[in-house]
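Long-time lurker, first post. I've been practising inverse folding by hand and with some scripts of my own, and I keep getting stuck on stretches where the structure tokens seem ambiguous. Below is the full token string for one chain I'm working on. Before anyone asks, I'm not after the true native sequence, just a reasonable design that respects the backbone. If someone could post their per-position residues I'd love to compare against what I wrote down in my notebook.
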């Protein structure tokens, strides 16, 4: 881990961008890391994120009871 908070933030941002497959943004973050004297991590390909299907549909919202005076 690093003591520099900006480098730490860039590394967290880079991890999220890699997971989402945004290679152009990863390259921009890598450039910022190099400018701050940090070597970017080795390029790793994340598995594509597959949508999660629900076994049961979501429940309907409950309505408020009418106010009585």
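-- Answer (accepted) --
I ran through it position by position. Result:
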């Amino acid at each position: 881990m690093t003591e520099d908070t900006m480098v730490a933030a860039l590394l967290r941002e880079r991890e999220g961008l890699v997971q989402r497959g945004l290679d152009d943004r990863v390259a921009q973050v890598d450039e910022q890391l190099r400018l701050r004297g940090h070597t970017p991590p080795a390029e790793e390909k994340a598995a594509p994120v597959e949508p999660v299907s629900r076994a049961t549909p979501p429940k309907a919202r409950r309505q408020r009871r009418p106010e009585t005076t």
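A couple of notes from the structure itself: The CA atoms of residues 7 and 13 lie 10 Å apart. The chain is about 40% helix and 0% strand. Happy to go over any region you disagree with.
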